[in-house]
Amino acid sequence: MSIGEKCKGDVMQNMELYYDFSGQKFGYPLSLSMNGFSRNIFSKQSSLEISYVLKGVYEAVTTKFSYVLKERDMIVIAPNDIHMLHKKDAKDDGIILTIHIDFSRMTDAMAGNVKSGFSTAICTETKNRDSYIQLRNKIGELAKELMAQRNDLYRMNVIMMQILWIAAAKNKFSVDELPLHTDYHENYMKAIKYIDCHFKENLTLSEIARQLSFSTSYTSKLLKRYTGIPFVKYLAYVRVRASLEQLLEGRESIEKIAIECGMPSSKAYTTIFRELYGIVPSAYRKQFQNNMKYSIEEKTQKMVLDQEQKKLLWHLLEGTEEVIYEDQQISIQQKGEEVVLKIANGQVKLEPLPEGGFSIRIPKEK
Fold first, then answer.
1. Which of 224, 278, 295, 349 is the most buried (most CB within 10 A)?
2. Cα dihedral angle (204, 206, 208, 211), rounded to 10 degrees?
3. In whole angstroms, what is the distance from residue 185 CA to residue 111 CA?
4. Handedness of CA 121, 127, 130, 136 (dihedral sign)
5. What is the spatial distance between Cα 335 and Cα 317, in angstroms, rounded to a whole number?
6. In what helix (H) or strand (E) does residue 191 lie, and over which residues does it extend?
7. Which strands sit side by side in the sheet containing 66-69, from one edge to the other?
8. How far is Cα 236 from Cα 217, in angstroms, rounded to an integer?
């Protein structure tokens, strides 16, 4: 069996449980996916990756270590770390949840020190336990948002930044350490904007340099410094991300979409697409169409998590209670449909109100 045939086989596994909230479709840094694919090639990306095993057994291989991830174990993969995640048993029906936070879609001031701010680490009940519990709770909060179909932008921003803060562990980064905006940074923004406007063309590094009156070597270093990847790779990522809407519409062939977004061939397009999303374009399109449901009025609705997917995620919602009020004596939390009252000293009085409901009175300590 060739590598291509093997990859194709991987893609077809567990498609009924495939789910993808892809922030890139909206230019948003956060993405979450569930799939049963086995990635048998090494890869790296400029984003922070957190992979959490929902079912089965996976092996994580990096340049520094390898580790067998069992159900409910996770790995935090630092930006630009080379890694591979594959099933221990190719016949296993494992499912893995993966979160990506793409720093290229943030300003430098929001992203912080990406190069040295994160470390690749295994997080389980026994290894890096504190980070594990905190990250699992935040993943649960994110899952809760998606299950409820709220997708509230500001709420998701809070969860995303909390995940980054926990994943950074001891590598705290002060605002005072942020570099001042310089001509170097402004020139980078000019280059990025030019690429965003002209990516469908036969764009070259020398053409960008000429248009912006920079030298080719300066432009190359500029892009590599801020994107973390070579110009050719960055351009390919821009092209593929920009093609998502057209791909999901399902009207054009993948060959035509590849050419129209500026990629040299459908093969090159598929290779980059798989790097970004862990799935080939045809399977991505098919799964999206299968998840598009129609209301009685025949209006399309958002892709939603089905019952089987929710069942896999349900344990993550433990410990994601919403705190309504909390002080040293009492804590009031929302747990699903219930409101739970926790009392520190066990002494509390509930007094009925004339208009209905209760007021809480706590005796003062003597």
1. 278
2. -130
3. 14
4. positive
5. 10
6. helix 183-198
7. 66-69, 58-62, 83-87
8. 20
